[in-house]
Request: fold
Amino acid sequence: CGDFVQGGVVGSVSFGEHIVGIMNQVGYDVVALGNHEFDFGASQLFRLTDLLDASVVCANFRNLRTGELVFPDYRMVRYGEVDIAYVGLITPETATMVAPATFWDEDGNPLYDFMLHEFYQQTQSCVDHARASGADYVVLLTHLGDSEEYGACSSTGLAKATNGVDVVLDGHAHSTISCMVEENKDGEEVL
Reply:
């Protein structure tokens, strides 16, 4: 759920490369981005994700020149007879948490955005698409934080504002939640 390249000397001295090597040995299937994936710049982020064996998903990181998502919004993984869609989301506040030059060209034009004003609609669209594609379950891999203190888009707020989501796994807040259930916009439980 993001921030996989930072957190210690091993990540810092290798600009995240050693961490990606460890992750490849562990065998992750799917990862979401966190704000710290941008600490070494966008070009290093793309280098690291090219080295990573796991699929990177992010439904709200958009290239403004093309209008397309930089990474796929979700990945479907089959476990026996069950299809689970993993949808990735990163805090839109990443744009202000990281050095601004990461997201701007040399002329001061924005290259990327995190879809702050479309965040809930974008998420719902991705969930709907995953369900229409046959997902038995939808899991959001988020890097948002679990309360409004983390900005306009929190994992709990996202669970409440959408439907069709079964589970929300969240990073960013560095808090431990043993079990929390929220009601989605249709009154159904989301773990």
Remarks:
- The radius of gyration is 16 Å.
- The first strand starts at residue 30 and ends at 32.
- Residues 160 and 187 are 9 Å apart (CA to CA).
